Amino acid sequence: MSEVNRSNIDTGALLGGLLPDFWERTPVGLCLSDDSGDIVAVNASFAETTGYGERELVGLPIMRLLAAEGAVLGSAAHIAFIAGEDSATAEMTYLHKSGRPLFFHASDTRLRSRDGRIYRLTTLIDLGRRVAGVPQLRQHQQAETFAALASDISNDFNNLLSIILGYTALLQDSPPDAGRLTTAVGGIDHAVRRAANLIGQTLHLSKREELNFQRVMTGDVVREFFRMASATIGTGLELSLDLSTDLPPVSLDPRQFHQVMTNLAQKARELAGSGGRLTVVNRRVAGTDVRVKFPDAREPAYVELSLRAAPPNGEMVAGERPGTWDAAVRFVEKRRDLSLLVAHNILASHRAHLEIDAWSGPALAFRIYLPALAETETPSGPPVPGPADPGTGERTVLVVDDEDMFLQTLSFLFGRNGFNVIKARDGIEAVAQYVLHADRISLVVIDLGLPHMSGWEAFLKMKERSPQVNALVMSGHLEANLKSEILRAGAKGFLQKPFTMSEALSEVNRLLQPTTPP
Question: 263: domain CATH number?
Fold first, then answer.
């Protein structure tokens, strides 16, 4: 075989001819982001690994694929990598769209365009599907997952403690009137109940129980669930069951599936509230249709069970986008939720899939896809797991948090102490409010873990508009170096949840002290 004369090869033409085909066909996930961190292009493998659509990712900042606490360090790491520090991005942890941490191998390469601009090419390999049979690697994957869960659990508990401390502050006012007393006691009771549920979800994940699969009809299981749970979930909720009786049977562990239904129905109940509506429907779906949404769906047919929650008639909030229910969208965009991770975990053991949809109508839809059994098939055991200038005297504060009770508590605290308060519940709303009122906002108090757009991304967008934006960042996460990175990036203060209301007020007053001219 004669040796190839490499000097005669047109390298540019060769790469131009081969790379497009490689980009689409390689099983390795590829993502190209520019020097500002915005995603320029992804291939199908990257989109599949992260759970997004290709078009959905283009234009988003790559930090959107990180947890809220990781976005702070990830933003600094991206800047350092573009500047030439090869190892800066080595410790990044990417999330699937569902919120679960990815077990992956990633590497980054700097590319320079003809105009001299630097790009970052990220290659991502999902190891979770490739190491299912290797015990040591599976243990490592579980350790990574539980480390992420521990961070989320601590954040949720710190949020709840902050809520309790806020209501405690109301009770300490002397003398507390009857209305304030009722509000505070009700708020504390609700927070404690949420904490108890959080503990229950955590204990569920820690158990290693043997599954007891049974051949059942979904209609029968769902009717029995709502009969038993009507006292806790159905009260004040308009419930409609439209369940077909001529669908194929499925194989599931009824007790474990009861836990899935409990988690989803409780989330639907919390969002819909008293007077809301919950509709439950089942139907048969072809496996090819499910594979469009879940590429690892391998069964020929599925039974879809849909839980659709909607607010009471006529109670959509003014200003909400047509066709959406903003409370549901904020919940879905938050991504990591312990009760949903429990549901995903249980359904994965059933070779089933969970879709969460807040965009196809003014409602929140949970769609469960359970493998349908052939009429002659019998279960064979467990499946194989597949700014304003503070010196001007303006005292307007933009407060941003997706926890409604905590947002109301902080707003009440600042309002009672002479501040004008503007509220926002997600990152996009926060940026919009800031752009609208920047000339009079003297301080932004913003949480990191926000839906739609993280608090960190929102802060950076505010900083682009007003480099001297006065921001106080809050977080319930306990990541190393988080505070120092936040302050180094230009935030003026940091509050670690949980904090007392007096601590919050003291920090706000410190940041709004009139500046003394030099």
Answer: 3.30.565.10
User: Per-residue pLDDT for 315 more than 80?
Assistant: no
Domain of residue 67, CATH code: 3.30.450.20
What is the CATH classification number for the domain harbouring 462? 3.40.50.2300
Tokens of 83: 């500047």
| 197 shares its domain with 85 | no
Please write the tens of the pLDDT for every residue from 344-395.
888 888 889 999 888 887 889 999 999 998 764 444 444 433 344 444 456 8
Q: What is the pLDDT of residues 236-287, one digit of tens each?
A: 788 899 999 899 999 998 888 988 898 898 888 888 888 888 999 999 999 9
Q: Domain span at residue 60?
A: 6-126
In order of 98, 152, 339, 340, 436, the CA distances from 202 in angstroms are: 18, 11, 9, 12, 42
- DSSP bridge pairs for 109: 121
- Tokens of residue 106, six digits: 């990633």
Task: Dig out the tokens for 166 from the structure.
Answer: 């806020």
In a domain, 183, yes or no: yes
DSSP for 28-59? SEEEEE-TTSBEEEE-HHHHHHHT--HHHHTT
How far separated are the first and last CA of the chain, in Å rounded?
Answer: 79
Mean of pLDDT over the chain:
80
**pTM flag (> 0.70):** no
CB 163 within 8 A of CB 402: no
Tell me: pLDDT of 92 over 70: yes
Asked if residue 460 and residue 488 are part of one domain, the reply reads: yes
Helix or strand (DSSP H, E) at 76? helix 68-82
Same domain, yes or no, for 54 and 89? yes
Q: Distance between CA atoms of 252 and 351, rounded to whole angstroms? A: 10
Count the domains in the chain: 4
Sorted by sequence, the CB contacts under 8 Å of residue 200 that are 6+ apart come out as none
